[in-house]
Amino acid sequence: MKHVLTLYLFIALMAFPFAVSAEEETIMLGEVVVTATRYEELISEVPAHVTVITKEEIQNSPAQNIPELLRTVTGIHVNDIAGNNRNYTVDLRGFGETASSNTLVLVDGRRINQADLSGVDWTEIPLERVERIEIIRGGRGSVLYGDNASGGVINIITREGAPLKGGGKLAAGSYDTFKGSAFIDASYDDLSLSLTGKYLTSDGYRDNSATEAKDIGLNLLYEITENLQVHFSTGYHKDNTGLPGALKESDFSAGASRTDTTHPDDYADIEDYYFKIAPEISFLKDSLFKIDMSFRKRAFLSYASGDFGHFTGDSDIHTVIISPQILFKHSIGKAKNILSLGIDYIQSDNDIINESLFFGDSSIGIFDLKKEDFGFYLHDEINIGEIFYLSGGYRHDRADFTFNPGIPDKTDMSEESYTTGINYTFYQQSYIYCSFSRSFRYPLLDELYSFFTNTVNTDLTPQTSDNYEFGIRYYFNDNLYAHLNLFRIDTDHEIIFNPLTYNNENLDGKTRRDGIEISLSAKPIDWFTVKGSYTYLKAEIKEGIFQGQSIPNVPAHKIDVYVLTYPGKGFIVTLNGVYVGKRPFISDFLNEYGNQDSYIILNSKIQYRWKSFTAFLDINNLTNEEYSEFGVIGGFPLEKSFYPSPRINFLAGVSMEF
């Protein structure tokens, strides 16, 4: 371990006199986002805490996938469950075990949250295909996108075509990991394309955690006329992965090691593909009409075993999305106005075959579950003198659920969301903002439906959240800024799985999340950049049988640090670290079992670049910390259970562009 740290410090410090400034861009005061309003605008115009992860930051990060990249972002808590770069939870704003249902994830504006408990598949888009990632915290995204945006929105934006360029990457490392990827970008007259492919295989940190994944993606842009262009994208993903499961305290007492599994036969096989087409027409100078249309099919086959018996689930879910939007840009006197109107139609059809053996009783069930969601929204923004930005929006949404078989065989729900906010630019690019948003989340298909009794829980209702936000970002100069954000989220009838009754339920009354997010970014000299953040989050159940208890798996304290250096002679060294504080175990709503331990993780990336050639070494968990990111109360009888996280591990490789 000492030799690894010595090597890192040597490379990081050598040749500082030769440091170069051309390789690192300055902090961009004019960063733009499209997620906050479904059209491009400056970050300083959005009344929310916004983060943009750029292409350069992605290239310089030791992260192997999108969740690892999000791990060191302010206010995001990431859990690697199996230790094989495959199964993750990503929690924005402290929703704990229901994080995947309360964080809306988009790819190029297309939602990838599933209508069932499978949530978000973070491997659908490999990191090699990503151009940038936009993170909009808080509930204002509910107006524009509807369901699932209680904690915020993460929009993954993929790379588009460019002048002819290609490249590839090969890497190998710990746990017999091998990765290969390639891309080609091209453009000709009015047509541009970007084609990417990736292959990954790894044995994983634990027994029965091996994974093999294949990906291919294509983006096309065709400019038919000056006022008409068509975007087309598609992607295909397939993987086969072992599921090692949790290790209970009694397993460790019986002599189990951290890499063992008590579920040697559990697995998940996934095949997922989508198509999206989006014609876009401009009119009246800057006004715009576009319609996004997409189809996705996801096949999921899994086997799980435990004290109860075993279960095999074979599920196909088809999702169709049609989203027309019209954007009017005009002026009211000296004030600029942007009005956005849109409709979202989403249909999800889930065909399921379940085979189970529970406590000696076997059964086979065939089910067809559907959700149709229809919403319309309007959002308006007024810009007064490039100083004041007033914004507001409203959405009405309705969801129809059908179940076959089912008693009853259908139910429906409707909700409204709204938002209002103000931004004031008070010194150069420095700005202050405040906002209020109402968001909502519908129950998921398999939260409403019982596969054991074929009945629908008609008592389960949507949850709603009121989000209050206040923040200030101050630029001391072009290379130094600080950001302070305060928020409160009050949620009524939050949907959880109650471990006392073994049912999905609405909590009685209110839950509250109070938070402080502080971040700093500085580039004091050309060859050195440092970023850091601190998140304090108090997530508490305010009423009902769990009154006064902390929400499981939500740390009160989180610290993130990112350092980038250019020591010269073609070397680039990145170091990032995260501290995650103590938090209750998953399912421990009574807080009876104590807390999961806190941990500190340091990761590093060392690169050497020469012309179009790059060699790199990623070192994860530099200090060889022994820890578990994810802990649950489970088993029969109930006890503490852990998903051990990987010890120090390496990935080395080369890449080239031409």
The amount of beta strand, in percent, is: over 45%
Q: Helices and strands: which structural class?
A: mainly beta
Termini separation (Å)?
37 Å
Anisotropy-based shape: globular
Q: Tell me about the largest β-sheet.
A: 22 strands, antiparallel, barrel
Q: How many strands in all?
A: 38
* Number of helical elements: 7
Mean pLDDT: 91
Notes on the structure:
With 658 residues, the protein is mainly β. It contains 7 helices and 38 strands. It has a 22-stranded antiparallel barrel. Strands 3-8-9-6-7 form a 5-stranded mixed β-sheet. The longest helix is centred in the N-terminal third of the chain and has 12 residues, at 2-13. It is globular, with a radius of gyration of 24 Å. 44% of the residues are buried.
List keywords for this structure.
658 residues; mainly beta; 22-stranded antiparallel β-barrel; 7 helices; 38 strands; 6% helix; 60% strand; globular; disordered N terminus
